[in-house]
Design goal:
This protein has 409 residues and is mostly helical. The protein contains 17 helices and three strands.
Amino acid sequence: MSEAAETGKPNGDVRRRVSKQLGRANTTRAGMWFWEVDRVLLLLAMLLIAIGLVAVAAASPATARRYSDATHIMQPMYYFWRQLVWVCLSVPVLIGVSMLPITAARRFALFGAAFFLLLLALVPFIGSEANGARRWIDFGVADLQPSEFLKPFFIVATAWMLSFRAKDPELPVLFITGGLTAVIAVLLMLQPDFGQTMVFGIVWLILLTLSGISTVAIGGLLGTAVAGVVAAYLFYDTARTRINNFLFPTKEAALADRYQVDMAHQTLSAGGLTGAGPGSGQVKFKLPEAHTDYIFSVIGEEFGLVSCAVIVVLYAAIVIRVFMKMLDEEDAFRLLAASGLAAQFGVQALINMAVNTGIAPSKGMTLPFISYGGSSMIALSIGYGLLLAFTRRNPYLKRSPYTGRWSKG
């Protein structure tokens, strides 16, 4: 049968419309985004979000029982259904941000950095307290954690300032970005939030290294970082208590601060290699914050250490793919922004998993795209959307008259 006759059939029309929409000739914004976006990075994010929904479903009964009392009994799947709502809101945000042209994405991040830095400064005055920390602002409908949103915006803003070194190495961007990082660190320590302070500091150091500062300067900064940890231990009660209780636990500390870390380790290892099975975990019912900070341990109990290893591989694949993709990037801003966002994603995951395995003291750090939480999900979706925007490429850019206007912003 001829091609004309074939396409005259209803199924032929469908194939033709699909081919037109998904083909490279599609010059709509959505069509060009589909061919420019790194679909492997997008797929990895969707896998983590799907795993997160399964993990929250496994952890929800334990958390619901913990927070229920005689007057208020929570439904076992309460946190799962709420997380599903956050996912439905977050995925469109991720896609929408990833479609932004580079210039628009940069402006969006700069305005976001200024706005959430202001909110972070207001937390000590108008923030709500939970579990001994004041990190959230109550907007009635939901609590918002400014530091979660500030992270991706801070990285892009810092990358933008450091990118000017490529044009003029004499610009004092090191001191400007260092001052900004110091201000954020002070505001976080007031909450207190030592874990987030570490993330901001580590990512800043990574960005400085990628920007090409001298090895002498890097050595000086590392020495300053060590001195900062020592100073925090000597003068910052929260840091000193956390470090002492982790390294030199007293009997009281073992019953209090060490309890979470020890119970997380027991939960993680309770399922062995293959796990107890979905919904069959029992140790998780003794685990505080099973749906947020310690969800990695719940995964270990119900789905096994093999599943935990798969999750580690997924996070590593994201970071490695971004860094490999940026090896031949000529735009200093895009290189720093994308690499910094990937580093933040990896560092946060590493800290959370280190706490769950007992390698590090409790930090109150969520596992990206897997832990329960509205602020965390939306903020990570914004950050990952920016990452996809900065890694978006069109191999036919120089030859196509249609994509120059869209891709260059």
